[in-house]
Amino acid sequence: MNAPPAAPSPDQRAARRAFTWFRAQTADWAGTEGQRWIFVAKAMLAAFAALWLSFRLGLEAPYTALATTVVLALPSSGMVLEKALHRFLGTLVGCSAALTLVALFPQSPTVLFLGLALWVALCTGGAAMHRNQQSYSFVLAGYTAVMIAAPAVDAPGNVFTLAVTRVTEVSLGIICSAVVHDVFFPRRHSGAVMRTVQARYAGFIDFCRQVLAHRITPADAELNHLKFAADIAALESGRAAAFFEAGHSRSQTRQLHAFNAAFMTALTTFYTLHRLSHRLRAAGDGPVLALVEPMYAHLAQAMGDELTPARLAQMRSKLADDSAAAQAQLAAGPELDRARHIDFDTAVELLERFAGNLADFAALYHGLAQQKRQQVSDPGAYSPKTPPAIIVASGVRAGATLLVTAAMWYWLAWPATVNAILMATIFCALASSSPRPTVLVRQVLIGFLISMPFAFITEFLLVTRADSFYPLVLAALPLFAFGAYLSSSPRWSGVGIGVGMFSATLVVPANLMHYDVESFIASELSLTMGVAVAFVMFKVLLPEHTMGHRGHVAAALWQEARNACGARLHRLKRRFDNRVRDLLSQLNAAAGPSPNAQTRAVVRQGLTLLELGHAAIELRQLIAASHAGSARDSLETVLRQLAAYLDAPTRTAGEAVLASILHAGTAVRAALPDAHPERRARLHMALTDLHSIYTSLLDQLSGESNVPTPAA
Predict the structure, then answer these.
(1) What's the CATH code of the domain at 217?
(2) 288 in the same domain as 149
(3) Per the UniProt record, which residue ranges are transmembrane (predicted)?
(4) At 52, which helix (H) or strand (E)?
């Protein structure tokens, strides 16, 4: 017989209580500040491992490997691997471009710099067009060519050695960063993606309940749509990073694409439903509200529970019963006029459509949350869309910045100005894809200015005393750790990047070290001058042509609405949704946490054009599936008039659309009695779309929207 376990002694119980108390007290710290310090430790391990290997291999510029680890220090292993791949590809392309340009113009510095300016302009424009980690390849390809070609102006024979050295050192930094961030305390981005999915789902359900219960104003609803647009872009960015991690499969990629697509579809339908409800309440339309309000209330109540397949089926069944009861009440009561009858039919159609969209969205969410593999057709990735004027302006600004700094180099005859050329080109290219480039460059400039005295102290009072590698690490560690810590904060990340890059360029010794105070100060001043030039160029050269500027976003939204009336129909609704949501995401990023009245007006404009575009696309799909007849002819007339209005949004053009809609509604209703069930369903959908266009245009022409037109 086994003896009973001995009771813990008072000392053991006290120690256990102390440990439990300590764990409870440090739990929050470990999840927030502790994660930042783990990030700093990994960044430092990668940086000094790359530096040690650079010394062991006898590389000419060890700071390049270290600077690469500073740039690649990101929160998750997936983000590190994704950025590392694009940095490597961009470096290869940039070195190849530098070799080509120097080979073509070895004795013509002026032509060489013109060629470099053109190359940088093209690469920066490409970066602005893509606006994801692929854009980083374009940025690297642009400024790497400058880093290789500019020092080779006086000695073109050294360009191949410079290119090979650059590729070797960057590759070494990439390997060190990838290994450290993927092996030591790895943070998987797939977990962050799932948290984003859960937050998106919960936020959308709560938003719908508040709207259906009339607990949220239309203005707040518009801001929520703006944030949802940013969430869509953030999820796609996170999915792209998670793709590089082990365990992320193609099926998960398809599921995330489908989840994003289902969310956009449900969000658009719900917005149209909300607009209709708001119009009815604003008009005080009691008879129609009395019929549809119970449906809204029952839908809101159903969304308060977990949306399991059984609950969704029950919700749709209840909605069908409510619709039948409302139809019976309508038939038994006094006859409604035609406009009110259309309002009722449209509300019922939108409620049923939204219930179907919600069921698809919830099914995809539960599949992701429960890690089930679902067989879904890939609707295609969310694709960013940058207005062409922004792309061109970004390229022009970057090319002009290179030429301005090259002219400064020539007229000043100061050898250190080559550092200004590099810094101005780098940050002009990097910030071109940012919605607030001057804020980013200003933060980097602050980081440079903060680092100047500390870098000097570290170099000449600490590093000079180091007689081996380990004392060197101790001497340089505080400054680099300070930069990494700042970069882990979203608010101060730009300052942290500035501290890290400045320190990596100046503090790290070479294999054959030469301490020269005059040269050090000259490098400090020229590096800082380069960032200052980039800041000034953003301020004075095409300052309104930056990512997310409301004027360019408004014009691009009108263009997308015009495309909805005439572009190729294959996957047009998905492309249209993607591009409108992406433009709103740019607007949200540029506006910051508190959008002003002008930005909110563009949001209203974008959501109105989204409604018009969806209705136009659905009408085109219905026309494509219809037989010839008066109903089809009248719908085609509506589309032609709507396209004319979107090309020139005048009151005369708008009234012509309204007249064509009334005529088309009469023709469609005349075709209903003799239509077979399938065609009758399509005709009812056409009436819903016509009503959506009609009421949206009434808002526009009455001035309720108060939004800018393309001419504005």
Answers:
(1) 1.20.120
(2) no
(3) 37-55, 88-105, 111-129, 136-153, 159-185, 416-432, 444-463, 469-487, 494-514, 520-542
(4) helix 33-57
Asked if residues 433 and 135 have their Cβ atoms less than 8 Å apart, the reply is yes
Residue-level pLDDT at 27: 61
Say if residues 497 and 487 touch (Cβ distance below 8 Å): yes
- pLDDT for residue 712: 37
Cβ 626 vs Cβ 639: under 8 Å? no
Asked if residue 514 and residue 618 are part of one domain, the reply reads no
Q: Which region, left, alpha or beta, applies to residue 436 given φ > 0 means left and ψ of -120 to 50 means alpha?
A: beta
Q: Best-predicted range by mean pLDDT among 307-316, 443-452, 510-519?
A: 443-452
DSSP 179-242: HHHHHSS---HHHHHHHHHHHHHHHHHHHHHHHHTT-S-HHHHHHHHHHHHHHHHHHHHHHHHH
pLDDT tens string 95-111: 999 999 999 988 888 99
Report the distance separating Cα 322 and Cα 335, nearest Å.
19
The type of residue at 426 is I
What confidence tens digit (pLDDT) does each residue in 128-170 have? 888 777 888 999 999 999 999 988 887 888 889 989 999 999 9
Check whether residue 648 and residue 698 sit in a common domain.
yes
If one counts the domains in the chain, the total is 3
Q: What gap in Å lies between CA 526 and CA 520, rounded to an integer?
A: 10
CA distance 379 to 261: 7
Contact 73, 490 (CB under 8 A): no
Q: Is the torsion defined by CA of 610, 615, 616, 618 positive or negative?
A: positive
Domain identity same for 155 and 206: no
**Residue 25: helix, strand or coil by DSSP?**
helix
Scanning the structure block, which residue is given the tokens 């990023």?
A: 589
Would you say 120 and 146 are in contact if contact means Cβ atoms under 8 Å apart? Answer: yes
In a domain, 657, yes or no: yes
* Local confidence band at 85 (pLDDT 50, 70, 90 cut-offs): very high
Distance of CA 4 to the CA centre of its chain: 62
- Decide if 710 is inside a domain: no
Q: By three-state DSSP, how is residue 121 classified?
A: helix
Name the region of 409 (left: φ>0; alpha: ψ -120 to 50; beta: rest): alpha
Q: Which residue, of 370, 403, 434, is where some domain finishes?
A: 370
Rounded mean pLDDT, 620-638: 89
- Tokens 């948290």 found at: 195
Identify the domain containing residue 181 by its residue range: 31-187+385-540
Question: Whole-model pTM?
Answer: 0.85
Distance CA 5, CA 640 (A): 87
Which percentage of the chain shows pLDDT scores above 70?
91
